[in-house]
Design brief:
The complex is a heterodimer. Chain A is mainly β. Chain A has no helices and 12 strands. Chain A has strands spanning 3-6, 11-14, 19-21, 23-26, 32-38, 44-50, 56-59, 62-65, 75-77, 86-93, 102-103, 107-112. In chain A, the strands form 3 sheets. In chain A, strands 2, 5, 6, 10, 11 and 12 form a 6-stranded mixed sheet that branches. In chain A, strands 3-9-8-7 form a 4-stranded antiparallel sheet, with no helix packed on it. By secondary structure, chain B is mainly β. Helix content of chain B is 0%, strand content 50%. Chain B is built from no helices and 11 strands. The chains are: A mainly beta, B mainly beta. The interface between A and B is medium-sized, with 26 and 29 residues.
């Protein structure tokens, strides 16, 4: 079945540091890939998405590129802020969209001033 | 813009009681998904509906049932509640098809005591 593996947290960085959160996936078809962010006590918010190989999703300074050859969708940001502290989930959805999302375990990001 | 509305936000029930969670999707979104997120866990897909018909089923216990109504809102009914059912329950909606991603509601926090 489908699965998403992302780096375990917590990840602690200083403000303005470079961020990478690794995400790899296993899927039978050609999934769409997503990054969601969850702030404390809140729901999941779509951060960015990519629907086919070599697509780059970007939003709020975050980027991720759909790499089919390495089945990866790593999240990057050049300079993190304290307000980026949250839990980040990598997720995939198989073709057709009838199935629900398959999530990774989440990575807790802590940014220190 | 209208978002996905879930009610109630918080719910406390005793073991063996029943609970009903409601979800109102974004207008013109025809697909609704339910997820369960235990403390510190990733969201687990429970069930989805498309055009009022069950579309896909995930790890939903037999004690739970759900349906989508003619106005596209959905209800998750949970019976014989157990302590382990305590979790955040998220609803998401989307237009049919995976390329749009999903919009999540803020969730219902269910506590079983």
């Amino acid at each position: 079945g489908d699965s998403v593996t992302q780096m375990e947290g917590p990840v602690t960085l200083s403000e303005e540091a470079f961020l990478t959160i690794n995400c790899t996936y296993t899927a039978t078809g050609y999934p769409s890939l997503f990054w969601y962010v969850q702030y404390p006590g809140e729901g999941l918010q779509l951060l960015l998405k990519a629907t086919k190989a070599d697509d780059k999703g970007s939003n709020k300074g975050f980027e991720a590129t759909y790499r089919k050859e390495t089945t990866s969708f790593h999240l990057e940001k050049g300079s993190v802020q304290v307000s980026d502290s949250a839990v980040y989930f990598c997720a995939l959805s198989e073709e057709g969209g009838a199935d629900g999302l398959t999530f990774g375990k989440g990575t807790h990001l802590i940014i220190q001033p | 813009a209208a978002g996905v509305i879930q009610s109630p936000r918080h719910l406390i029930k005793e073991k063996r009681e029943t609970a009903t969670l409601k979800c109102y999707p974004i207008p013109r979104h025809d697909t609704v998904y339910w997820y369960q997120q235990g403390p510190g866990q990733d969201p687990q897909f429970l069930i989805s509906f498309y055009e009022k018909m069950q579309s896909d089923k995930g790890s939903i216990p037999d004690r739970f049932s759900a349906q989508q109504f003619s106005d596209y809102h959905s209800e998750l009914n949970m019976s014989s509640l157990e302590l382990g059912d305590s979790a955040l329950y998220f609803c998401a909606s989307s237009p049919r098809g995976h390329i749009y991603g999903y919009t999540f509601g803020s969730g219902t926090r269910l506590t079983v005591v």
